[in-house]
Amino acid sequence: TPMDKHPDCIFCKIAAGEIPSRKVYEDDELFAFHDISPWAPVHFLIIPKQHIPSMASLTDADAALMGRIMTLAPQLALEQGCEPYPQGGYRIVINTGEQGGQEVHHLHVHVIGGPRPWAKG
Ligand code: 5GP
Ligand code: ZN
């Protein structure tokens, strides 16, 4: 089934609570947690619980799920201390593939914010 975990996927294990993480949010489809190696004062990841390897794996059937991630991101960003738009804000990054900088092959959305220095990195 689509909910099957990939046995060697670290983010499947995090979503299942089998590897500890600092949880930001959870529902039946999505899990969010702080990045272990943050690039900025606010840096968390939103993942589908379902193992989708990357953006390149998406089909039309995933449109609603991806929409939920994208509408959840701004809500969680404010909860995690990002200041409101337009003075505040954050970056949303989805690294895809080797040349796209993707290291973990379970789709994840970075939400990165906090006061600038980091912003143009
Ligand atoms: P990518 O380069 O694939 O877009 O980003 C993977 C991100 O996952 C990196 O920012 C990395 O710090 C984070 N990460 C990798 N392993 C773990 C882990 O075990 N726990 C947490 N919380 N973050 C992780
Ligand atoms: Zn996975």
Short description:
This is Histidine triad (HIT) family protein. The chain is α+β, with helices and mostly antiparallel strands.
Task: Give descriptors for this structure.
2 helices, five-stranded antiparallel β-sheet, 21% strand, alpha+beta, HIT family, subunit A, globular, 121 residues, Histidine triad (HIT) family protein, HIT-like_sf, binds guanosine-5'-monophosphate, 5 strands, binds zinc ion, single chain
Descriptive report:
The protein is α+β, with helices and mostly antiparallel strands. The chain has a single domain (10-113), classed as HIT family, subunit A. It has two helices and five strands, in the order H-E-E-E-H-E-E. It has a five-stranded antiparallel β-sheet with strand order 1-2-3-5-4, covered by helices on one side. Strand 2 and strand 3 (42-48) form a beta hairpin. The longest helix has 17 residues, at 63-79. The chain binds guanosine-5'-monophosphate and zinc ion. Residues 6, 9, 11-12, 51, 106 line the site of zinc ion. The site of guanosine-5'-monophosphate has 12 residues, from strand 2.
